[in-house]
């Protein structure tokens, strides 16, 4: 299988299968504007093609489907005061919505690392497959950002407060956890991947799934559900931390440490985004909210600082500004949700038509 990275998305038509393979394996298939436009264009074409019975989205290489957006490029664009990141998100979010309402079954293989933007192009699909190698998460708060690409939609609708826990800590989950949270559907042993791709080209989708998927192992996250639900039901990050600190569970103390490591601004805005997303009617309206939050986050120092500390310099000692939760005002949190005027993303209107 080719890993020629001059082609960022390999497009194949085999039998009645349309196959889109992300192809930047050295960058763990990190998404670019070009990639999401290629995906969107082919999905648009195939939506009215009666010879395409199923679409499959996979990633090249052994490390994962997709580690998210190209955050190094985002940091450079932000430092230069450019508009490339806004254009990227304006292209990416409609593709997330398109996958969610696609008329033909979309199968996504959430094998290996699936972070951030990788969740956006996989977890909204109609058939989401995980493997024993799946490592899925929205670790945005650790880089001074807030879950986007429909992440706050998915996490706000997960059972209890499991999604809140993962969003605030930036922790990853297993494939079994993803099924429990509603981000995935079936468990596929990784040694059946080749068979899956081959059979999807010729066989009935449901018959293929019945043949290659197996019952998922027990989800590790569920054993912590009791303290997660009680601690994260609080209305503020400060109270959530107080409850975690007071817990007798070691996992709760680890969660508190993770939250304290993350950007105070991002953590507070993430909690607000999740609570607001719960009250919004559909994915499109949540994506519109996330677009506002994302662009406002781009104007703040923590996003660039988080990328510097975690990805560029890799010193893992971000200097957040402000440095404490107490310094992040309600007004500052609310400012992340302020309307964008002519820059607003308009998806709900298009979905209604």
Automatic annotation (TrEMBL):
<dbReference type="GO" id="GO:0016853">
    <property type="term" value="F:isomerase activity"/>
</dbReference>
<feature type="domain" description="Enoyl-CoA hydratase/isomerase">
    <location>
        <begin position="18"/>
        <end position="337"/>
    </location>
</feature>
<dbReference type="InterPro" id="IPR032259">
    <property type="entry name" value="HIBYL-CoA-H"/>
</dbReference>
<dbReference type="GO" id="GO:0006574">
    <property type="term" value="P:L-valine catabolic process"/>
</dbReference>
<dbReference type="GO" id="GO:0005829">
    <property type="term" value="C:cytosol"/>
</dbReference>
<keyword id="KW-0378">Hydrolase</keyword>
<protein>
    <recommendedName>
        <fullName>3-hydroxyisobutyryl-CoA hydrolase</fullName>
        <ecNumber>3.1.2.4</ecNumber>
    </recommendedName>
</protein>
<keyword id="KW-0413">Isomerase</keyword>
<dbReference type="GO" id="GO:0003860">
    <property type="term" value="F:3-hydroxyisobutyryl-CoA hydrolase activity"/>
</dbReference>
<dbReference type="InterPro" id="IPR045004">
    <property type="entry name" value="ECH_dom"/>
</dbReference>
<dbReference type="InterPro" id="IPR029045">
    <property type="entry name" value="ClpP/crotonase-like_dom_sf"/>
</dbReference>
<dbReference type="Pfam" id="PF16113">
    <property type="entry name" value="ECH_2"/>
</dbReference>
